[in-house]
Predict the 3D structure of the following.
Amino acid sequence: MNIAVRYCSRSGNTKAAAEAIAEELGAKALSVDDPAALTGEPVDLLIVGGALYAYGIDERLKAYLSSLTKDSAKQACRSTRWTL
Ligand SMILES: Cc1cc2nc3c(=O)[nH]c(=O)nc-3n(C[C@H](O)[C@H](O)[C@H](O)COP(=O)(O)O)c2cc1C
């Protein structure tokens, strides 16, 4: 299965989580800032992680998500989390 892990991280928490997930799945985690994050072949599973900042997501993550099409991945998993 072709798996891609992408993340948007300001202070490193989401990056660490994405890298742990990618390692477990035998995939590579790329920041949405990385040009290669946008130009990959369609994948079977796309995992995208990002955090909440003032109840919203980072503009770079919004741009990345907007760049995706229904053909970018057969399945997609996006996660944000609530942090106290
Ligand atoms: C300026 C700022 C605003 C935040 N706003 C929220 C928020 O609205 N909701 C939330 O659950 N966490 C919020 N957080 C917490 C971050 O989502 C949390 O620390 C997250 O792990 C940061 O991920 P990153 O290290 O990948 O950037 C905020 C953090 C910062 C610095």
Notes: Residues 9-15, 51-55, 82-83 surround flavin mononucleotide (CB under 6 Å). The mean pLDDT is 89. Helices lie at 13-25, 59-67. The beta strands are 3-8, 29-31, 43-50, 73-79.
